[in-house]
Write a structure and sequence with these properties.
27% helix, 4 helices, alpha+beta, 153 residues, five-stranded antiparallel sheet
Length: 153
């Protein structure tokens, strides 16, 4: 009788441990990637006043994208959910875009977020539009005919 009671108790413990491990194995894990400066740091950067070097000093230069050709700055932060065998899902993404004019003065500061698969502006501080008087189709079709085959060689 003692042996039967002990094996039943051990079996319940093993079953409980296996159930716990199965549930824990299916729990979601989250990974954070990238960096977006907080609003407190962004308040120190004024469009139309501060320059590229000021932005570098106050909030730092972003990673390689956007910086390589002396272009605009893009700070990107993502939060990805991994759940078992399913495809990872991006549940949060923030993009901070700082654009500069020809004199390397801050022209625009925009913050975007991931909402239903669309990029939606959350806040925008603008001193000058980067696209002046051009509609969407004019921007898309504006370079058709500006291709020079000699540039490929």
């Amino acid at each position: 009788m003692f042996g039967t009671h002990f094996s039943l108790k051990a079996g319940i413990r093993v079953l409980g441990l296996a159930s716990f491990m199965a549930v824990a194995g299916c729990s979601a894990t989250y990974q954070n990637h990238g960096y977006v400066p907080p609003d407190e740091d962004l308040m120190q950067v004024a469009p139309g006043v501060d320059t590229r070097s000021t932005v570098d000093d106050v909030i730092g230069a972003p990673s390689a994208s956007g910086v390589l050709s002396g272009g605009d700055y893009y700070y990107v932060r993502s939060r990805v959910k991994h759940y078992g065998m399913f495809r990872p899902e991006v549940i949060e993404r923030q993009v901070l875009a700082i654009s500069f004019d020809q004199q390397d003065v801050v022209a625009n500061i925009e913050r975007f977020d991931l909402s239903d698969g669309n990029v939606v502006p959350l806040s925008r501080r603008v001193t000058d539009s980067t696209v002046q008087g051009q509609g969407f189709l004019q921007q898309m079709l504006g370079n058709i005919g500006n291709i020079n085959p000699a540039d490929f060689f």
